[in-house]
Amino acid sequence: MRVFTNAEHLPAIRNPILTIGTFDGVHLGHQEIITTINQLAKEYDGESVILTFHPHPRLVINPGDTSLKLINTLEEKKALLAKYGVDNLIIVPFSREFSQIPARQYVDDLIWKSIHPKVVVIGYDHRFGKNREGGIELIKAIGNERGFKVLEIEKQTVDDIDVSSTKVRAALADCDIEQANNLLGHHYTLEGIVVKGEQRGRKLGYPTANIQVNDPNKLIPGNGIYAVNIVYAGAEFAGMMSIGTNPTFNNKKQTIEVYIFDFGKEIYGEALKVIFVAYLRPEEKFDSIEALIFQMQQDELAAKNVLNYTHNQLP
What we know:
The chain is of the alpha/beta class and 315 residues long. It has helices at residues 28-43, 57-61, 74-83, 96-99, 103-115, 136-146, 165-173, 177-184, 200-204, 289-306, and strands at residues 2-4, 16-20, 47-54, 88-93, 119-123, 149-153, 157-158, 161-162, 189-195, 209-213, 224-232, 235-244, 255-260, 271-281. 33% of the residues are buried.
């Protein structure tokens, strides 16, 4: 996949089949659009093109609103779009000035003059331009003038639930990993650097890696205990994760800690990728350290069962 950091001075793209959007999550609805543009690219002997924006428009338009957390970092989004076979990704820097471009100028300059698409494929609710004044009817009208086709993608459903980034975020916040992964069509992931924590896990027999997430806008799933897989140095391991405040120790600050089964290496400063497989239970305040250790042992058994874990499967 070729990646371009703006829409100016693009190299030649053969018979572009274009779609536009933030694509946060690259969920099943997004994947339907990607499948469509890839199929059309083959029919037109062309190339699929996604035009997206960074930072996320809401983070720019409402900088004081910290409620929006993103399913993907930019790097995660790139990896997923490449995985699903996109030929070209154009990342347009989003700014307040850009948000003030009138809808018709947006289509003429950004879509037509810069990319010259053969077909534009957009979702049923796509809005664009100053005050989000533009929609599919305007793109269709300009397409008729300029000579490109417009294809509308209807709302997608999974188990009769509309697929949207908002619904994925809600599922993750509610610890519903199964639903989130179902809507995404792939496992939710979290990446970060291992930092020093309180090191209580060592004393409990469960030395954990405290993770500092790379992107402050990345969505952290709801507090609780999870069965996870962990990617470290290109190899995948099994483990369990705690997200929360360690209420047994009366902590206030949220921490993200992962225990990697049969691991034992010191990895401070190293990068980890956590793959969420299942939610096990809510965090809990225990009356004694012994009760906490017993529950952690039960969590380990539950996680290993969910992950179909055997030591011989590890790298």
